[in-house]
Structure formats: structure tokens, C-alpha cells
Description:
Elements: E1 2-9, E2 14-21, E3 26-31, H1 40-43, H2 46-49, H3 51-55, E4 59-64, H4 67-74, H5 79-104, E5 112-117, H6 119-130, E6 135-141, H7 157-162, H8 164-167, H9 174-179, E7 183-188, H10 196-208, E8 213-217, H11 226-240
Parallel strand pairs: 3-4, 3-5, 5-6, 6-7, 7-8
Antiparallel strand pairs: 1-2, 2-4
Helix pairs in contact: 4-5
Amino acid sequence: xxxxxxxxxxxxxxxxxxxxWGEVGTPVLLFPTAGGDAEEVxxxxxxxxxxxxLAAGRIKLYSCNGVAGQAMLTREGTPEHRMRxxxxxxxxxxxxxxxxxxxxxxGNALPVISAGASIGAFNALAVLCRYPDAFSHAVCMSGTYxxxxxxxxxxxxxxxxxxxxxxxxxxxxxQLDLLRRRFVVLASGEGEWEDIGESWRIxxxxxxxxxxxxxxxxGTDYRHDWPTWWRMLxxxxxxxxxx
Length: 243
């Protein structure tokens, strides 16, 4: 049921790990939280929370190591380096990780759902907006969508192109036309360490470009922590993969 693939990414000058749970169903790419690796979601029981969908063959879950998030957490190099790494990480997702998922699916270019919590939610949204040809939906839980403060307030073209909050207002053409046929769920608790204002802010940016989205407030009983995401993720994957 579990399989692991590793390779060296020339783009990132870094090893990439891609782990899969399940054998059939809609592919879902889970992004870790800041600093997380490919197996973080298993250690924190998010995979177990989706056991019913996995056992029913509704989904296959994939997760990759968060190279850019790890660099942000450890403040690796300069802010410019970290912003460049974030942009290159998204390119690696499209050019290396998505083809690996297709190959694992028998060569079928199946639509992929992106998902993640916290910084993982940022990446889930970013890859959907940047590559709507490869992703069909994004499940964004307890997201942080403005990463400029995490780069010491600095800004660059790399952060602009990696950040939907910044590049979406100027997006036009075929990419936007395709993105308007995709769907984003922005779920957030309102308890400890949560900031649902982040979700409302990015929802306004998406809505201004007619990108279908929904903000789901989960209330004050749900804080920024794994038990919240145990409840959220299987609920949304069940909703999005019903036939």
C-alpha cells in the first residue's frame, strides 16, 4: 500500500522524496507544513484519517518533501535564495513530481487534487493556480497565503510568480480560462493560532478573477493543529471524489 521513490533534482540541487499510500483512485498530492518531509503526514496520522477513502479505492495519497519550506524554517541562505527556491520548487512539482505521479498511474495523465495545511495550503493553492492543466482542485486548510513576512519583508520576481496573492490580479489568457474551470476550498478554524482572515483575503483575489472558491469557517473549537486537519481532509476529499 505504501511506496517510496527518490531522485536528485537538478532544478533544486536537492534530493526529492515522493511517497504514495493507496493503489487506485484519484491522485492527491499532499504538501507538508513548513519544514516537513514527505512522511510528516503519516507520522501525524493524516494518512490514517483518510483510511476509509484509501480502503475504498477512492484516492491515492502522495506526499513530497517540502524543500522550500525547510529552507524558510531554517532561514537557509539569503531571502532572495529562499524566494528563488520556492519558485523552483513549484517548477519541480510540475516538471518532475507530476510526471512521476502519472507514471505511477500507468502513464495516465489523471487530474490531481492538491492539498495541504498551513504553508502546505499555500503550496496547494499555488500549484493549482500556476498549473491548472495538471491540477483539478485545491484543498487548502488553515492556510498562510502571504509569505513576504517569512522572507524578512523582502520581495522579488521569484516570490511574485510563486505567490497567487501577487500574480493572480494580473493573470490573463489561457491559463486563467482553464483556472476558472477549477475549484478551491479554503478551510480554516477560528481557534488558537488560526487566522481565517488569510482565507478571506485570498478568496477575494480568486473571486475577482472569477476563480471558483469557497471559504469554510470551522469555528472556535478548531485550532491550527493536526486534529483539525484530521477532520477536514477526509471530508473534503470525500466531497471532491464522489461520482
